[in-house]
Structures are given as C-alpha cells and as structure tokens.
Design brief:
Number of strands of chain A: 12
CATH superfamily of the largest domain in chain A: Response regulator
Largest sheet of chain A: 6 strands, parallel
Number of helices of chain A: 13
Shape of chain A: elongated
Strand order of the largest sheet of chain A: 2-1-3-4-5-11
Helix content of chain A: 40-55%
Oligomer: homodimer
Structural class of chain A: alpha/beta
Distance between the termini of chain A: 85 Å
Chain lengths: 337, 337
DNA sequence: TTGAAAGCGCTAACAT
DNA sequence: ATGTTAGCGCTTTCAA
C-alpha cells in the first residue's frame, strides 16, 4: 500500500516516492509547469494516475492563499427568489471553476454578520443577499468582507457593488395598474420589517400616493412567505380594500388561497398582485398579476462583479439596477361598483 | 498597524506579539484550553478582540484534518425537490456547526463523479443526491467518497447509507386511485432515463399492471421539468389515455398548462397526477393530485446519517425508506364515459 | 532542470 | 502553565 501520509490519503509525497523525484517536482507537474523534463513529467503523471492521486485542496489553499470558493448568505433558503439567485450564482461561478458555500440566516438578522464573517474566511469572496442587518452594522462589517457584492441592498462603503431591483418602480407600476382598473382603495401587505426591498416598495407607494391623492392606500403588516398571506385574510377584509398589493408572489398565493377559503372571488371581489414572477405565478388560480424580476440574471451578474473584485480588475463598478416588468394576468380586474 | 502576515490579514502571530505570549498559547486560549493562566488568557482575549482576530479556517483545517463542511451534489438546482433537500440538509448541518458546499451537475451524468470527487476533497463528507451515473461508476467511486450518504439511489458498497423514497409504491397508489375512478387507459410520462427514481416508478407500474390486467398503461418519454410536460401534450393526446401519471409535479404542471391551452378540461376530459407534493402543487388550477414526499425531512435525515459516519459512530445503518402519501386534489376525477 | 528548504496559519506533542 | 518545535499538504523561492 502506498498510504503513508498521516491522513491516510494519498499525498504528494507518495507520488514523489513512486516516481523517484522530489515532491517539488510532482507539484510542478501537477500545475503544468513546463520546466520539467518531459520524461520525468510522464513518469510523475503515471505515478499519479496509478495512485489515483488528487492534490489536497486544503493544502493548496493554504499555500496559495485562495480557496476557489465563494460564499453566499441568504435570509431564507426556502424563498424561491433566493433559490434562483443561488442557482444563477452557482452556475456562473462553476463555469470559472469556483464553488459556492451557502449560509442561511433563517431571517435572524443578528446571526447574519457572524455567518457572513465565517463564510468569508473560508472563501475568496462573498455575496450578501438582501441582508436584514442595519445600515450601521452593514457598513461596519463590509470592509472586512471584501471582496463583497450586495444584492438588493446598498452601502456607502467603497468598492462594494450593489445589484438592486427597482422595487419602488415595480410597486408603482402595479398600483397604477390597479388604479387604472378603477380601484380607489388599495392595501399593501408589507414584507419583513428589516427588508430593504420592503423599504423600497414603501417609497414607491409614497410616490404613487403623491401622484394619486384620490386613491386610499392602507399599510398592513406582513412577512415574506406563504403563511403570511394566508394569515392576513382578516386584516385584508377589514381594510375594505379592493386591490391588494402583496409583498411578493408567495404572500399573494397564500392570500389567494385564504380568500378562496372564505368564498371570495378573485378578481371579482378583490384584485391581488404579487411581485417577482416566480415560475409558479402563472399556475395559480387565477394566474397572478405581478412584477417580473430577472432574478437568475442577477445571480450571474453577482458572480461577474465578484470575479472582477477577486481578480482586482475593477474598483469602479458601482453595480446595476434592474427594472421589473409588469406582468398582467387574471388575478386583477375592474373594481367592484 | 498590526498587519504582519503575508496575506495581509491578522494572524495568530499578531495576537501573540500583542499579548506578549507564544502563538501556541494564543491557540490554546482560542480553543478554550483551560490549562492557561486566567490572567494570561484574559490578556490574549483582549488582544484578539482589539485586533479583531479570527482564526483562519484553512490553517485550522489543514492542522486538524477536517473542514467542518459537507458537500452535496444535485442533478439540477432548479428542481424544487433538490432545493428542499438542500434546505433540510443545510439547516440540520448548521445546527451542528457545519456548512454546505453545493455542486450542480446540470443533469450531465459524466460530470457527476468529477464534481463529487472535488467536493469531497474539500469537505468532511458528501451527500450524493439522485446521481444519474451508472451503478458500476457509482460503485467504483463510492469508496473514495466516504463518508457518503446517498439519496434516492442505492449501492452495494458497504457503509454507504441510502435514503430512498418508495416511488414504486407511490406511483402504484396513484394508478390505483385513477383505476378506482374508472380510468382504463393510463399513460406514464416518464422522467430522465438515468434517474433511479424513474426506474422505481416503472417497477411500481409493472406491479400495477400485473394486478390490473384490465387497465392499459402506455409509456411516454419525458423528463423532469416543466417544459417536458408542456411539450408532451401531443404525445399524451395521441396516446388516447384519460389518466396521466406525470413523473413529478413540475411535469404535471407543464402538462396541465399545455392541455389548458388546447382547451381541454381537467379533470373533465383528462385526469392528471403529479409526484412530490411541492408547496405549489395545491395552487395550480385545478389543485394537483399527487403523492406527497416528506422531502425536507429527507435532507435532515441525510445529515444525521452523515454526521454519524463522520463521527465514526455507525457502520450498521443501512438507511431509511420513505413512503409517499396519496394526496387527492381536484386534478383527478371520474373517467369520461 | 531539479532538489532542498522555507512558508502558508494553525494545532498538538514535547520539553521545560 | 508556557514556549519550542514539528507537522498538516502544498507551492515557490533559492541553490545547485
């Protein structure tokens, strides 16, 4: 047996012995260094194949100071939006030979900075997805997280690109759509209080209210998942609103289900809008009117930005802004007279 | 500034200098070794805090021979089933201080063993999710992947627990349900050819056919995603079947949508069943009859098994078998006369 | 072209 | 109780 190293696995030393060279030479061959004599290189390669030798990435990482891994921290892995971002990120990173380490904060904002720090130390860069932490906290830890890319959040820290979706515009478009259908009493079923994208939606609604003083817009507390919508039925009915802007598609779907259980007709009695246009939004009953966000692209773009930072190529890219697209389906209709 | 180490980050040596002790003592303090004098320990801790020192996990991993990270390789990160498994796994592992590295093979079976090997080398253990590779290949690489847990796949290699869903029984239950509604012409819209869970479904259908010679069961080629179902409309109509067993919920939803576009009534004209009971299955039009799989539990259980292997606690756990539960909704109804 | 040796940041056995 | 030293597995200077 050729198992010599302490870990019990085949190490570079085993190959060196088998090929009758120093481990430095094995390293050169494994890394495609052409200063090695072809014959010796062949011998080394043969030995490596025979022993099924694969370099230990941890040793490599320590020597090279890089891990070829990036981290992503998300508030909730159950959320299709974050799943899509993760997918886009993973796919793009894989094409450049990078792997992705995930960290789910389960919406516990106090855990985020710890998770982010831990993930970052194991990785070459980090994507922070819709962090719930305060601006102050974000600003404090951002420098120690560099290279860092932010999604749906901005910071004044230099060199941290932000990819943000213009939720404010999206929600305005949806509200305009409802107003255009004759709705004069709207209600916004809000998202997690610490969510920056929720704050952007609120800003958008303020702009809408300013432009449409004739429309009454109520604010309802909420969350980001299906249950939130389902549990909001009473609050929605009490509000007397005929057009409901749900925080996102999941909340809208929960609400839809809850209202159906009460025997209400959508959109006959009440119109509902979502946000995100997750793949399932078109298969609800009725299909969900929503604002479509090119979310997988966002994950890909996050990698592009992060890669540039890792390669120290850019310091000047502030990030990108994405415009949602109004997607009208059957969950919205004319207001009841 | 206290930045001495080559990487530019604060290292154990910086803390040692600041506290006026050796780096070994710093290591002891950081690892909670009580043989250190309380006063000195306090001094070290103060220095660590002041310098914002955090041990480098790569150095630690190399010294300890463990990474506190596990890997998971999935055939398709866009598939809600694998997302749910990932979520359950990540959540359970996080509670024990482990992180998860993901690898998406994008249904390219030839990539799987490479991805698995790479992931495994960076991690302390691996979860291989519904691998598409051949039995021979799986058996060949399984030993080098240990500690390894398999999901929806079995192998004869010893010490590799398998968590499998009894898709055969589930599909039988669904077929029985359709037969009970009077359907005598069924069609199975199959999954990816290399999918072991597809093979299990086929076995289940054989058992069903043996028990119900009066029922005709056609086999249709397919896949695992929404598009597969959508594109199968012609094949489904040509088959003349009135009861369609889709490979999973996604395929069923795609088919549902395609049939609606052709003006067919579900379940009036054709009954459809899915598989998995993903969260969205109840929000389609009509709600999808399906076989519910406790998928998040599966991810959790995968971690329990993997943890036992990592801790070398078990060699005798063969794994677990999960029974799907028939979930009757509105997408199935009496056969047309 | 190759080997010896240093070093990546850390832990742990050993010595004091 | 603490410091010195030897690894962990690898890459990379520096000599030869």
């Amino acid at each position: 047996m050729a198992r010599k190293s302490a870990t019990g696995r085949i190490g570079i030393a085993d190959v060196a012995v088998k090929a009758g060279v120093s481990h430095a030479t094995v390293s050169r061959v494994m890394n495609g260094n052409f200063t090695v004599d072809p014959d010796i290189a062949a011998r080394v390669r043969a030995a490596a194949v025979e022993l099924k030798y694969q370099p230990n990435p941890v040793g490599r990482s320590l020597a090279l100071g890089k891990t070829d891994t990036i981290g992503i921290v998300v508030p909730d892995l159950a959320n299709p939006t974050f799943q899509a971002i993760l997918r886009g990120l993973s796919r793009a990173a894989a094409q450049d030979g990078y792997r992705v380490l995930i960290a789910d904060s389960f919406e516990v904002s106090s855990e985020e900075s710890i998770l982010a720090g831990e993930a970052r130390r194991r990785c070459d860069g980090l994507v922070l997805c819709a962090p719930r932490m305060s601006d102050a906290e974000l600003e404090e830890i951002a420098p120690s997280l560099h290279p860092l890319v932010l999604i749906n959040r901005t910071t004044s820290t230099k060199g941290v690109p932000s990819l943000v979706v213009d939720y404010g515009q999206g929600v305005q478009d949806l509200a305009e759509h409802l107003a255009g259908l004759g709705h004069t009493r709207l209600a916004f079923l809000a998202g997690p209080p610490r969510s920056a994208s929720n704050a952007l939606r609120l800003e958008g609604l303020e702009a809408f209210k300013a432009a449409h003083p004739e429309v009454d817009v109520r604010m309802l507390e909420g969350g980001s998942d299906f249950d939130t919508g389902h549990e909001a039925v009473d609050a929605v009915l009490d509000s007397g609103a005929t057009g409901i802007l749900a925080f996102n598609d999941l909340v809208a779907m929960g609400l839809l289900s809850g209202l159906h259980e009460r025997g209400l007709d959508i959109p006959g009695d009440i119109s509902i809008t979502g946000f995100d246009d997750i793949p399932f939004a078109r298969y609800t009953t009725p299909g969900l009117t929503t604002a479509a966000v090119p979310i997988t692209e966002l994950g890909q773009e996050a990698w592009q930005q992060l890669r540039a930072l890792i390669r120290k190529e850019s310091t000047d890219t502030p990030g990108s802004r994405y415009q949602p697209r109004l997607e009208v389906r059957a969950s919205t209709g004319p207001a009841k007279k």
